[in-house]
Amino acid sequence: MSDVTTVPGRSLVEVGDLTVDFGDLRAVDGLTFRLERGAALALVGESGSGKSTVASALLGLHRGTGTRVGGSIDVAGTDVQEASDEELQRLRGGRAAMVFQDPLSSLDPYYAIGDQIAEVYRVHARASRRAARARAVEVLDRVGIPDAARRSRSRPHEFSGGMRQRALIAMALACEPDLLIADEPTTALDVTVQAQILDLLHTLREETGMGLLLVTHDVGVAAESVDEVLVMRHGRAVEQGPVAEVLGAPARTYTRELLGAVPRVDAPREVRAAETVGEVVLEATGLRREFGRGKRAFTAVDDVSLTIHRGETLGIVGESGSGKTTLGRMLVGLLEPTAGEVRYDGHARVDVDPAVQMVFQDPVSSLNPRRTVGESIADPLRARGERDEGRIRGRVRELLERVGLEAAHYDRYPHEFSGGQRQRVGIARALAADPRIIVCDEPVSALDVTTQAQVVALLGELQRELGLALVFVAHDLAVVRQVSDRVAVMRRGRIVEEGPADEVYDNPQDPYTKQLLAAVPVLDPRIAAQRRAARRELAAV
Amino acid sequence: MTGFLARRVLGAVITLLAISVIVYVVFYVTPGNVAQITCGPRCSPAQVQQVAGQLHLGDPLYARYWDFLQGLVAGQDYSTGTSVQHCSAPCLGLSYQSDQQVTALILAKLPVSLSLVFGAMVLWLILGVGTGVLSAWRRGRLTERLLTGITLAGVATPVFVIGLLLMIVVCGQLQLLPFPQYVAFTDDPEQWAWNLLLPWLSLALIEAAAFARLTRASMLETLAEDHIRTFRAYGVGERSVIGRHALRGALAPVIALNANNFGSAVGGAVLTETLFGLPGIGQELVHAVKVVDLPVVVGMVLVIGFFVVVANAVADLLYAVADRRVVLA
What we know:
The complex is a heterodimer. By secondary structure, chain A is of the alpha/beta class. Chain A has helices spanning 51-58, 85-91, 113-124, 129-142, 148-151, 161-173, 191-208, 219-225, 243-248, 253-261, 324-332, 373-383, 389-402, 419-431, 449-466, 477-483, 501-506, 511-519, 525-540; strands at 13-22, 25-35, 40-44, 68-75, 78-79, 96-99, 179-183, 211-216, 228-233, 236-242, 280-291, 298-309, 313-317, 339-344, 347-348, 356-359, 437-441, 469-474, 486-491, 494-500. Chain A is built from 19 helices and 20 strands. A six-stranded mixed beta sheet of chain A has the order 6-7-8-3-9-10, sandwiched between helices. The longest helix of chain A has 18 residues, at 191-208. Helices cover 74% and strands 2% of the residues of chain B. Chain B is globular and about 85 Å long. The A-B interface holds A 59, 61, 88-94, 97-98, 100, 102, 105-111, 119-120, 123-124, 155, 157, 168, 171 and B 225-227, 229-237, 240, 244-245, 248-249, 322-325. Chain A: This is ABC transporter ATP-binding protein. Chain A: InterPro entries: AAA+_ATPase, ABC_transp_ATP-bind, ABC_transporter-like_ATP-bd, ABC_transporter-like_CS, Oligopep_ABC_C, P-loop_NTPase.
């Protein structure tokens, strides 16, 4: 269907000296790269590196927004900078299609998925409504949506996260584009679903010969999926080359730092002295929690028992919906268990106990934007009845310094801090109550890997100094291995496997744990290819 | 669906009963001699006494309210001195002023009010939503600034200014239309429409301003959503993006506002009714309040309340039709 006259010797994507300015901010600065037909390139970088901006620029999505785009962009034979609006519309979706990060918000909630794909198809191909609808079913079937004809009539909210992402990929495939641009396509997904989507992208590429430009913050995802990587930082290219070379023997310091910060699921944690782990501080028995009533009743946590000792870290790992957050909240006392009890230091807890504190996932929304961070940190102090302003200020300053911020930050507001700094504020607030246990619910999942490593290090340091017991709830298997002494794997509200971290990771007993570990992306592209082949064999059986 | 309807009907009944209690209490504690006002300024003390007896003004509040409820459920007989008038259920009582049955009074006024508000609603939705969509689409350009200015002026102008201006220009200067005069739809639909055209326009112009502003804000919000970006990135034209994807998402608050404004306009378009001499509910209500005609006030307020409740239930149904994620409860 593509009516483009392919100029021989011309690459699929050619970007020369690309600059993108948002007002005074230069998001992309002098970027040059090319992508050959059928090849795959990953733009890898942390947040703010400009990688997504490049993806948008390739389709001319900045046009009409006041953003200034300089340099040359040539995509599938279209000069994006000079093209007319009509030419751009033909390019978008027709020859180059984009898959976005959040598949729920990226689809229109009001229309059936099949209708949305058909609409896009009809923009680019002269087809009747009926033919377009048939095409939609065909591509939905192609991306592995079971019973595609029926499911094409569903609205996006009736699909699971993985199926929505498949649907978006189906939309991209509808017009048989030469280039697929995938902007963080698996970031919102569970690790097992991520593996499926990455495998799907790989298969589609093999079959259709389309080129892939993958934008990701996850080096592992890049290693699994592409031939070449381009590492970006502050809008500039840091390093570019074949994936095995760049990840195997990085030439630049930043690339080495980035790779060093990536938590490895296969690296055993440093063994620590046994005496740091002390008596039992928290004991949960038979915890159960239900939500809803009658037909809609749903058991989020089912018969979970665990103990936590002084000075140790218990990692709770699981995919979305496994009940790990609900469990964490019950341990802190933010949620009443439907059955079972939490005992703290041997006695049943009656209310929220200041000795058990929580650090939340999203450091943006868990701090009140209208109050200074000092005031937020002082809350637990005031809650305990401290009235002396001088003493409160003194203690908060101390805490700020303790978590690696400055005492002078007391009067600043949350928006003045970076994500990592905000999470430090969250930790300081948890420390203010002199807790013995801190439950961290996905404390680093919103952070870049380098920041993530710093926050993890801070938590370890605090634990050693204060003898804290930590409960580390996360979906990221590698991070959990990095921080935990013991690990509990959750699935559908139950703990399927529990034990010392290295044992669980190196010698998993439960099939679900094995499946999870097999899905984690690895940094070595050769191993990634082997594992993909293994997964494919498993699926074929 | 059945559950939704049952809950809505029950809720409406409770709401309306609560409203009637409040009106009764308010009028009970209102100062002033109701019998004197009802009887007129030239009545002798004896006559006033007699009126008070007829109207049961001496009875305690709960007894009078009980009477009202009985009439509503079972109907009631009223003696008007010489004859006995039977008022069948649902009986809202007799007007203190005219001895007319309130239900009959309402049935006479309601078509006028509904004619006015329905027509105006169609106009204000077309004008308001249209303007809102246009100014969201042309954001930051001259079109938008012009439209914003006009709608702001619309919000700020009282209805009698617009109405008077329309009448002076259209009926007086240009003589395109005769001065409006209510003609029942059942008598002559064409004359009905022509005569209501100016009242519709003046009521709609005022209301449209609020809809334009709301639609614009709501559209801008939807246009910033991710799925809009998706369709732009797939080469879908701007007209389709705006009309198909953005507008549908932006309509929910518009539906809600419309439900409220429709309901309250049924009894609240007093100025428009007065200006164009339309004998509607609003005018009658204002008059009844002035002369402390309790049964009429209660009746009118209940009718208005009924329309507000129904309009909101319809809005909820529309939500559920527009957005399948909404569960009716």
